Amino acid sequence: QVQLVESGGDLVQPGGSLRLSCAASGFLFNGYWMYWVRQAPGKGLEWVSKSSPGGGTTYYADSVKGRFIISRDNARNTLYLQMNSLKSEDTAVYYCAKGSTSGLRGPGTQVTVSS
Predict the structure, then answer these.
(1) Cβ contacts of residue 74 below 8 Å, gap of 6+?
(2) Is the pLDDT of residue 91 over 90?
(3) What would the pLDDT profile of 100-113 be if each residue is shown by its tens digit?
(4) Tens of pLDDT along 73-83?
(5) Is 1 helix (H, G, I), strand (E, B) or coil?
(6) What number of other Cβ atoms are within 10 A of residue 101's Cβ?
(7) How far apart are alpha carbons 99 and 6 in whole angstroms?
(8) Which of 12, 62, 94, 110 has the greatest number of C-beta atoms within 10 Å?
């Protein structure tokens, strides 16, 4: 069946870095736009970034532009999010999503930015 599993979340100090991964299975990964979205405590779902099927076209929310980098390895059916210069406001559960921001998501991975 179609499955997405995120990993890599952790507690990190402000200014630190993390790399999230999303392992995909059960569908033609290289045929879909893939998204990262996040949900901070008490807030709604926020779009973070998206990648074209081939990985050559990417977009970012203004809040993360210049700090986060989305990438994908289609041979490994894996989506990544490199997060640099982390801020407290980046604290959230991060999800990868298939095809759209409202597409199938995994269980998420917790990122906490705190000193």
Answers:
(1) 29, 30, 53, 54, 55
(2) yes
(3) 988 899 999 999 99
(4) 999 999 999 99
(5) coil
(6) 15
(7) 16
(8) 94
Short-list 36, 6, 14, CA closest to 110: 6
Look at residues 71, 50, 69, 46 and name the one whose alpha carbon lies nearest to residue 59: 50
Q: How many CA atoms lie within 13 A of 15 on its CB side?
A: 1
One-letter amino acid of 12: V
Cα dist. 31→51, 79, 91, 104 in Å? 11, 13, 30, 15
